[in-house]
Specification:
This protein is α/β, with parallel strands linked by helices. The chain has 2 domains: about 1-85, Tetrapyrrole methylase, N-terminal domain (Cobalt-precorrin-4 Transmethylase, domain 1, 3-Layer(aba) Sandwich); about 90-190, Methyltransferase, Cobalt-precorrin-4 Transmethylase, Domain 2, CATH 3.30.950.10. The protein has helices spanning about 15-20, 30-35, 90-95, 115-125, 140-150; strands at about 1-5, 25-30, 45-50, 65, 80-85, 105-110, 130-135, 155-160, 170-175, 185-190. It is elongated and about 55 Å long.
Length: about 190
């Protein structure tokens, strides 16, 4: 099996990912992942939208599974097989905000305990890192800002929405005036950048 990252937005497929998709006989993925790679899917390739993520372990060795972003950044890389990276929201956001990745720490708050994630974010900023946060629609920058202020941490907060898409936006504020996400598809960066 191959797990192929299709990137964080349109046009973010790597050459290796394109080759894997072009050679595929059967492809599995979310609607968004399939849409992102559709222009490379060959005629006659069997394409299946994933509705049950529990059945992945039973896929044939010849399957190509599409993962949004990069499979190893809260993606489907845990399935094993040959993992082909995509251009992630992490790489993209760091480049857009001119933040060296070596000065960051990744915190996954997507479908996770937000209080625990906020504790991790405070810890990482406290040790001089900029936290890259994989967020979900319920993760509120204002709640993060309140916790940071309680901890005596003043810093910048960036909400990066729909990265790589034509309507992408990046809003930067701080702990006093944190940006407010306008969509459900966003990541966040917090720190002294």
């Amino acid at each position: 099996m191959k797990v192929v990252g299709v990137g964080c937005g349109p046009g973010m497929l790597t050459e290796a990912a394109i080759a894997a998709v072009r050679d595929a006989k059967e492809i599995y993925g979310s609607e968004r992942a399939i849409e992102r790679a559709a222009w490379q899917i060959p005629a006659g390739c069997e394409v299946r939208v994933i509705t049950d993520y529990k059945g992945f372990r039973d896929l044939p060795d010849t399957a190509v599974v599409l993962s949004t972003g990069d499979p190893m950044l809260a993606g489907l890389g845990y399935l094993g097989g040959d993992v082909i990276s995509g251009i992630s929201s992490y790489q993209y956001a760091c480049a857009k905000l001119h933040i060296p990745m070596t000065k960051t720490a990744i915190v996954n708050a997507h479908a996770k305990d937000h209080e625990q994630a906020i504790t991790e974010i405070c810890f990482e900023i406290g040790r001089g890192k900029t936290a890259f946060v994989i967020a979900d629609p319920g993760f509120l920058p204002s709640v993060l800002a309140d916790h940071l202020m309680t901890e005596g941490i003043e810093c910048r907060i960036a909400v990066c929405e729909k990265l790589g898409y034509p309507d992408e936006t990046i809003s930067v504020g701080d702990t006093d005036t944190p940006p407010v996400p306008q969509s459900d598809l966003f990541v966040l960066m917090a720190g002294r950048f």
